Amino acid sequence: MILLAAGIINRMLGFIPRIALPRIIGAEGVGLYQLGYPFFIVLITVITGGIPLAIAKMVAEAEGANRPEQSRRILRTGLTLSLSLGLLFTVIALLSASWVTRFILTDSRVYYTFVSMTPMISIVAVSSIYRGYFQGRQNMIPSALSSVLESVIRIFFMLWFSYLLLPKGMAFAAAGAMLGVTVGEIFGMLALLVQYYFIVKQDKQDSSAAGLPSEPILDHQLQAAEKTNGPVLKRLLGIAVPVTAGRLVGSFSYLLESIITARSLALAGIAAAAATAQYGSLQGMVIPLLLLPGVLSSSLAVSLVPSLSEAAARRDLPAIHKRMHQALRLAMVTGAPFAAIMYVLAVPLCTMMYGNADTAPMLRMMAPFALFLYVQAPLQAALQAMDRPGRALINTLAGAVVKILLILMLASRPEYGIYGAIIAIIVNSVLVTLLHYSSVVKLIQLSLRISDPLKTITAMIIMAAGTSYVYTSVPLSGTMWLQFLFAASSGMALYLGICLLSGLISVRDLDRVPFFRRRR
Fold first, then answer.
1. 220-257 burial, b for 16+ CB within 10 Å, e for fewer?
2. Which end of the chain is more exposed for a tag (fewer CB within 10 A), N or C?
3. CA-to-CA distance for 424 and 408, rounded, in angstroms?
4. Nearest partner of 430 among 379, 476, 497, 493, judged by Cα
């Protein structure tokens, strides 16, 4: 719950620069900023992909055996490994920055943004290890506090630096935004270090007060543990490498998508500046809006893993079926109204959020298919809970290959352009979701309840019609925000009423929600 609260705060804070940054540096500047990011994500995945998870697991085992010194030894080993990789890739990124931005990213103006992000590689490497350490100790507060502080500092410096450097040109303004991200990461890392200092200091005071054994005995325990489990580094790599390999699939897919989209748009005859602006609008404005309601299904997926694992351990198949049906229904029911609003009110939404209605057609095209993204999270969680992460990886890889091929085929054609890339992303989300669903059905013999998706789609269509009517036929004196909020609220009320009447939501369901239960 602590991490979920921090995640919601960060997601909401994240929309401040997404709203303000396009107004300062425009869609083209956002495109330059976005083009450099996928390369950074790949480097970070290589360095920190599975190491924090391995740290958390090993520290949890050490803390469970009451060996705090072993926890710190695991931390030091992880820091040495991660920081060494971070410094190595920082040097490689700096030396290859000119070649990468000229020949791979297709727009040489990304050079300054690319150089500005390189210091973050080592910073994130250190921060991720400390987060893994705290999570292993089941203390989520340091990670939550540092992430919120990092978000606040990042937003301020992103906007300030981009504004200060805008007179020097669009390339420098985008680089300023990336420098702001770097400053935020520095403060996030410092917050973790300060909390680590005080927590370790408190541990030592508690140990002295309790009269626990001294460190020589702990060293002897460490030697015994190493004989049993092997050297810390070897075990660390044994856990981290498979996880990193899985995460690299998604990161490379994102990187290839950005590179191939830019090259395909160039083949379609679109100028580099216009192609960068279009890609920036898609990745920096449209997709974040689509993913915002996904915070609900993401938190649902997190809670579903232990729930299904517990039922699977008891071999309670009816409980597994019941929880899967509940999770899928909840993901659909909570995501559908947001998809309807994004489809019907795409123009006012994009105008208010970004001061630019040019992105509205992209949002309207993708909104109806957002339901597949929201349902995908609990399906993937189910595969992980049932010890089938390999199947989830294969499904994701298949979707990534199809997406890249479709981008090459469609985005390079002048009649499609950026909409060819949008079609590819839609096909990817639909395909991966269906593959996940097929895998879950085969794994647990889950029966298909066709009534739930039919009721949800019907309610969504009626809500969309009602929202559109209210927005266009019930004029309100005031700002566009007031008109938008009134239409969206009316549509939500209509949707909730249809769900109650159709049985998608029951009074019993509402009674389980703490907010409603306290008022009943």
1. ebbeebeeeeeebeebbbebbebbbebbbbbbbbbbbb
2. C
3. 9
4. 379
The DSSP secondary structure of 212-255, one letter per residue, reads: ---HHHHHHHHHHHHHHH--HHHHHHHHHHHHHHHHHHHHHHHH
d(CA 338, CA 299): 17
pLDDT in tens, 397-417: 898 899 999 998 998 888 888
* The predicted structure's pLDDT at residue 214: 43
Q: How far apart are CA 320 and CA 301, in angstroms?
A: 14
Cα dihedral across residues 151, 156, 160, 163: positive or negative: positive
Residue carrying structure tokens 């339901």 = 371
Q: What is this structure's pTM?
A: 0.67
CA-closest candidate to residue 132, choices 86, 65, 180, 63: 63
Read off the pLDDT of residues 363-392 as tens digits, 9 standing for 90 and up.
Answer: 999 999 999 988 988 888 788 667 676 787
The residues near 69 (Cβ < 8 Å, ≥ 6 apart) are 215, 218, 219, 222
Contact yes or no for 444/317 (Cβ under 8 A): yes
